[in-house]
Amino acid sequence: MIGRLDAPLKVTGRARYALDNNVPGMVFGYVVLSTTAHGEITDMDVAAARSAPGVLAVYTPFAPLPLTAPVTAMLGPIWVPLQSTDVTYYGQPIGFVVAETFEQARDAAALVRVTYDERPASTSMSDGLATAVDAPPSLDGSPPALSVLAPGVESIEDALAASPVVVDATYTTATQNHAAMEPHSAMAVWESGKVTVYTGNQGSDLVASALADALGEDHAAVRVVNPFVGGAFGGKALSIPAFLAAAAARELDRPVKAALTREQVFTATATRPATVQRMSIGAEKDGTLVALRHDSWSSTPAGGGFVEPTSHGTSREWYATPNVAISQKMVPLHVPPTTFMRAPGEAPGSFALESAIDELAVTLDMDPIELRQRNSSTAPPGRDLQWSSKHLDECFRVGAARFRWAERTPRGRVDGDCLVGVGTATAMFPALRFPASVRVTLHDDDTAEVATSGADPGTGLLTVLSLIGAESLDIAPERVTPRLGDSALPPGGMSGGSTATASAGSAIMVAAPKVIDDLLALASGPGAPFEGDDDVTYADGRVLATDGRSLTFGEVLRAAGRDSIAAIGSSAAGEELTKHSFSSFGAQFCEVRVHRWTREVRVSRMLGVFDAGRIINAQAARSQIMGGMIWGVSAALHEGLEIEESGRFANADLAGYLLPVNADIPEVDVEFVQYPDTLHNPVGARGLGEIGVVGMAAAVANAVHNATGIRVRRIPIAIEDLLEQ
User: Fold this and answer.
1) Confidence label for 701 from pLDDT (cuts 50, 70 and 90)
2) What angle do the packed helices 618-637 and 696-708 form, to 10 degrees?
């Protein structure tokens, strides 16, 4: 195990993020946001702003920057600012002021006067349920409603009615913001007809392609650089500042830097939608599931957009049952855009499913772990593709012993002024792979480079590239220099969906043998050290001749008059998808202490045990899981955006938008059961960046019920939810 290669730079402040890039002649942009949730802009008085000190330009829908909405394969059409006078949410970007300094741009932006033709706005999730419509097909093409019924069963309602025991309840989750430490920002500089954009994102080559389309430029003219990203979590596929800075820099022929303020991050970026979910579970008296129905509603922006796939992401696959039906509807509201956020679908969906499973266990007077193990699926219901590797039962066994689950009682215990309870939940997240290409280069100083455009938004991919590169080249990790976060490198795809290690790692394992083969051909070629030896081999970073001689690869390159040799490997999901189902699995455990009089909830200890294939870097893997588990606590007890009737966010800052701090998280324990999954990819690793958050909110809520006897079916849980009735 080695430490994170980027750690020294980050902790000493030497890591250069987007906003750390400065060039001569740079000017600053500031985004103007709408102050109504629905309407049309009829006028923007910018005279005072234009005449303010230092102002170079003011752009509005009436004097826009030339931009065209790009269309991406993953996200579809991308909205770009200032192209329309229509307003569909409070805080929508409607203007851009550029000045010599940030303060001048900010102060001038405050002088812009906007006149609206206001229209009625729908901002309430509960009120909007009546206008819900079917969601579009999910990313895998699945329709919004699916059902699998046993032979002879007419409907899911009939299956539920025939079940001896039924749990039927509705659960709600709040709107959330990614709240990454690094705000969305960009610095754009044009030179000789080409632009370089420094911006935090999750895939520089994908962002460069979208920016090129938006700017109407050749793709070769746009370069995006992001070696360091201060958090993304699904929310930095593209950003408003990148579009505006690039376009304004072209218009003004000056480098432009732009960043959203912390409050603007909450409205001018996309969020995790609010959800309402109805769970109906039927079972035999021994706990065997008979039927499961999961109906979900997800808030979406009025013009349509991302739908949180809570039903598809959980109940479609998690438990073995002969009858399952899921549906997904969207509730159009005048709220900011919605998008992917860490474990989209699975995070809020698991709160509903795993809370309902716990309710069923209580109704049956059965241990919640026993109930889950009794109904563990060998394959997604309705599909004959079994899991490539599944050790969820072992996760529960290991976790139960380590967490001292046997000491649990059905109604918790009292410790002084606290009611103490424990809860558990299943965690699952699909194991995916995205297309990725990696270049492996051997240098004449006996070092190697592994390079791809993919991003490391804190997940540890930089270090993983070094480790897998070293293993594939049979040299020490210290001799491998990883590079990423630059669209000029081979396309590494998106850092999302917990795919980076499997995707980039598989590409490395294609590129490394290629470059070694080329090295051996060079070593035995005309004029080479081992000329004519067709049986030269490679091991430990050395080329071995059949007569016993050996040279390092650097010595071979120097002898051949070469300073380097390189090969590019590419990898993508293939025929394995037709042979198996793939997922990572985990068991979440949580203990809470609820004050008997104030009803304040404190998490006192957590444990997560995970089956994610081979673990490449144990330190980074543990940190990723811990971060996800803490996020689950945040969702359960702290995190939620409050939307006023006007559409304004009441808590769009880090004072009102609550997040856990050190005092809220006293003890986190993580364990892995390691079974390399080479059916999924040659590295044997499955994704673990997102699974840590899955199930944790339910485990907290289940522990609260165990402690208090009160079942809370909404998150975040508030003190008033636990007051005596």
Assistant:
1) very high
2) 50
CA distance 226 to 424: 39
Three-state secondary-structure class, residue 705:
helix
Burial class (CB in 10 A: 0-12, 13-18, 19+), 301: buried
Q: Name the residue type at position 105.
A: A
How far apart, in Å, are the Cα atoms of 296 and each of 2, 166, 270, 409, 698?
Answer: 43, 19, 20, 33, 17
Whose CA is closest to 591, among 367, 408, 357, 370?
408
How big is the chain, counted in residues? 725
Cα(494)–Cα(405) distance, rounded to whole angstroms? 39
Counting Cα atoms < 13 Å in the Cβ hemisphere of 518 gives 17
Task: Report the relative pairing of strands 324-333 and 289-301 from DSSP bridges.
Answer: parallel
Q: How far apart are CA 353 and CA 315, in angstroms?
A: 7
In the Cβ-directed half-sphere of 718, how many Cα atoms lie within 13 Å? 7
3-state secondary structure 589-654: EEEEEEECCCCCEEEEEEEEEEECECCCCHHHHHHHHHHHHHHHHHHHHCCCCCECCCCCECCCCC
Mean pLDDT of the 128-135 span: 91
Structure tokens at 39: 């309407």
Q: Exposure of 136 by Cβ count < 10 A (0-12 exposed, 13-18 middle, 19+ buried)? A: middle
Over the chain, what is the mean pLDDT? 94
DSSP secondary structure letters along 458-516: SS-HHHHHHHHHHHHHTS-GGGEEEE-SBTTSSP---S-TT-HHHHHHHHHHHHHHHHH
Tokens 């000789």, located at residue: 192
In which band, very low, low, confident or very high, does the pLDDT at 1 lie, cut at 50, 70 and 90?
low
**Rounded to whole angstroms, how far apart are CA atoms 94 and 80?**
10
Distance CA 16, CA 665 (A): 30
One-letter amino acid of 57: A
358-374 residue pLDDT tens: 999 999 999 999 999 99
Amino acid at residue number 622: R
Residue tagged 């880090």 (tokens) = 654
For 418-467, the pLDDT digits (tens) are 999 999 999 999 999 999 999 999 999 999 999 999 998 888 899 999 99
Q: 74 pLDDT exceeds 80?
A: no
DSSP of 109-176, one letter per residue? HTT-EEEEEE------HHHHGGG-EEPPP-TT---SEEEE--TT---HHHHHHT-SEEEEEEEEE--E
For 4, residues 6+ apart whose C-beta sits below 8 A from its C-beta are 460, 462, 463, 619, 620
Q: Which domains does the chain have, with CATH numbers?
A: 7-120+179-268 (3.90.1170.50), 145-175+272-431+579-722 (3.30.365.10), 436-572 (3.30.365.10)
Structure tokens at 478: 């210290």
Cis, bond preceding 716 (omega within 30 deg of 0):
yes
What is the rounded distance in angstroms from the CA atom of residue 184 to the CA atom of residue 197? 13
The first and second tokens of residue 305, run together, are: 């957009």
* Residue 571 host element (H or E): strand 564-571
Euclidean distance between CA atoms 483 and 492, whole angstroms: 11
Please confirm, yes or no, whether 555 is among the known catalytic residues. Answer: no
Instruction: Say which of 394, 671, 690, 724 is annotated catalytic.
Output: 690
- The model carries a pTM of 0.95
Strands 76-77, 583-595: pairing kind: unpaired
- Region for residue 573 given its phi and psi (left: phi exceeds 0; alpha: psi -120 to 50; beta: otherwise): beta
DSSP 319: B
E runs forming strands in 229-320? 256-259, 271-272, 275-283, 289-301
Average pLDDT over residues 142-153: 91
The dihedral sign for the CA sequence 676, 679, 684, 690: negative
Q: Is the separation of the CB atoms in 694 and 347 below 8 Å?
A: yes
